[in-house]
């Protein structure tokens, strides 16, 4: 058997690049249809590493960036530091009701100007999940707002009441008994049950209001079928958000104000977690959980993206003599 020399493809210290080079080299030996150019491979490996391991930030919105219609202290300055430093970042929300443009307009009205592409919602995660699960296309009966309907349309997922593959529930202002009955019957007839997120409540000016996790309850009770939740803390949503950024979990930070969604989701996805105390969680609540965040800050403005170290970097630094 011919011995393969990987040196032209990648340096010895590049572990992930070596694996990639080995794959391409094996394809070459087996005379597959791959066209091998070691310079292109070397370039691809370098670009892949830069894309994957660059420091990046994913942050929740309500309770982290703003409360109600007011920005939280330091939020605008933190986003400015991310932009000036060239860090990749996303605003992540479990709320599937609003579209990306609506979220962009909301932040712009508070003084933070970012592209619509800087947002990732549970509606987007739901549409992406279905495209992966059913690449040949699928259909759904939907109880939800414009956010989830727009994302499903962009993913070419048919919204219908006639023998849908899925029943999808999200935040909505149009939730009535007739729709509950229809969803219940469709699930009993074989439709799979999906919900955009597990949040029981959402914020309003007058106090907490029912969110997606509460809306699924009557349907779940009648059918005996529990929905598959796509939003935080599901690692699927965290993975899809990082995929959108093109970054690796090892150097990606999750910033949130909730232990049971933001911090749990980041932890289970291998990300470095930052809890801010500007939202629903205080230190007393935090200490009740069996898991803890990597960092705790009073608000997002205290985070210095240039200085903060990922869990991976901290472990490596502590291991050095």
Account of the protein in words:
It is a single chain. With 321 residues, the protein is of the alpha/beta class. It has 3 domains: 15-52, no CATH class; 54-93 and 249-319, Rossmann fold, CATH 3.40.50.1000; 123-229, Rossmann fold (3-Layer(aba) Sandwich), CATH 3.40.50.1000. 40% of the residues lie in helices and 16% in strands. The protein has helices at 15-29, 38-53, 75-85, 100-109, 122-133, 146-154, 177-188, 212-215, 217-223, 235-245, 259-268, 283-286, 311-319, and strands at residues 56-59, 66-67, 70-71, 88-93, 119-121, 139-143, 158-159, 166-169, 192-195, 201-202, 209-210, 228-229, 252-256, 272-276, 295-297. The strands form 4 sheets. The protein has a 6-stranded parallel beta sheet. A 5-stranded parallel beta sheet has the order 7-6-8-9-12, sandwiched between helices. A two-stranded antiparallel ribbon has the order 2-3. Helix 1 packs antiparallel against helix 2 (38-53), helix 5 packs parallel to helix 6 and helix 5 packs across helix 10 (235-245). It is globular and about 65 Å long. Residues 1-51 have low confidence and may be disordered.
């Amino acid at each position: 058997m011919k011995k393969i020399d990987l040196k032209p493809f990648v340096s010895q210290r590049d572990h992930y690049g070596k694996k990639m080079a080995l794959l391409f080299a094996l394809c070459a030996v087996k005379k597959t249809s791959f066209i091998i150019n070691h310079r292109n491979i070397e370039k691809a490996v370098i670009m892949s590493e830069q894309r994957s391991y660059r420091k990046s930030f994913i942050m929740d919105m309500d309770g982290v960036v703003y409360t109600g219609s007011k920005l939280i202290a330091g939020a605008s300055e933190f986003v400015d530091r991310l932009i000036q430093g060239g860090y990749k970042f996303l605003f992540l929300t479990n709320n599937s009701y609003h579209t990306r443009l609506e979220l962009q307009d909301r932040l712009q009205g508070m003084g933070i100007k970012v592209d619509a592409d800087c947002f990732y919602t549970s509606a987007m995660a739901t549409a992406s999940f279905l495209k992966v699960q059913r690449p040949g296309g699928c259909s759904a009966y939907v109880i939800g707002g414009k956010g989830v309907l727009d994302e499903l349309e962009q993913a070419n997922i048919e919204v219908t009441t006639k023998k849908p593959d899925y029943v999808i529930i999200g935040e909505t202002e149009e939730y009535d008994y007739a729709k509950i009955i229809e969803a219940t019957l469709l699930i009993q007839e074989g439709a799979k049950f999906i919900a955009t997120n597990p949040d029981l409540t959402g914020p309003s000016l007058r106090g907490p209001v029912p969110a997606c996790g509460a809306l699924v309850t009557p349907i779940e009770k009648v059918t005996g079928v529990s929905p598959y939740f796509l939003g935080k803390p599901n690692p699927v949503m965290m993975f899809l958000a990082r995929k959108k950024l093109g970054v690796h979990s090892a150097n990606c930070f999750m910033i949130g104000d909730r232990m049971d969604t933001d911090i749990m989701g980041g932890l289970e996805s291998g990300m470095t977690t930052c809890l801010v105390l500007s939202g629903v969680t205080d230190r007393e609540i935090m200490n009740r959980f069996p898991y803890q965040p990597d960092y705790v800050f009073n608000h997002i403005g205290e985070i210095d993206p240039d200085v903060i170290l990922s869990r991976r970097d901290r472990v490596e630094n502590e291991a050095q003599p």
